[in-house]
């Protein structure tokens, strides 16, 4: 599912909302999740899962094509851990 499909489904299930309002709501939700992760905060959606940021230290990697050593800078990467209800629902289906 892509963002536009999500917006379409929400708009169909809520005919009292305009499509533009649904787009703004979904955009705001994604923007707030992103902003919280940038600040280093954890975002938990009960029953769905939790988004957090993991820190990866700098290291020496290898170019797979040439085998040459390459310095890889430290970075922060998003991490998602599924919630118990989502895991149960996936495994029961």
UniProtKB/TrEMBL annotation:
This protein is one of the two subunits of integration host factor, a specific DNA-binding protein that functions in genetic recombination as well as in transcriptional and translational control. GO terms for biological process: DNA recombination; regulation of DNA-templated transcription; regulation of translation. HAMAP family: IHF_beta (MF_00381). One of its GO terms (cellular component) is cytosol. The lineage of its organism: Bacteria, Pseudomonadati, Pseudomonadota, Alphaproteobacteria, Rhodobacterales. SMART domains: BHL (SM00411). Transmembrane segments: none annotated. Belongs to the bacterial histone-like protein family. This is Integration host factor subunit beta.
């Amino acid at each position: 599912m892509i963002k536009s499909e999500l917006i379409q489904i929400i708009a169909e299930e809520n005919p009292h909302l305009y499509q533009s309002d649904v787009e703004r709501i979904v955009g705001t939700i994604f923007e707030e999740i992103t902003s919280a992760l940038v600040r280093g905060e954890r975002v938990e959606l009960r029953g769905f899962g939790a988004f957090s940021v993991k820190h990866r230290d700098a290291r020496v990697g290898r170019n797979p094509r040439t085998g040459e050593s390459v310095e890889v800078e430290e970075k922060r990467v998003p991490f998602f851990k599924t919630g118990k209800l989502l895991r149960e629902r996936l495994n029961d289906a």
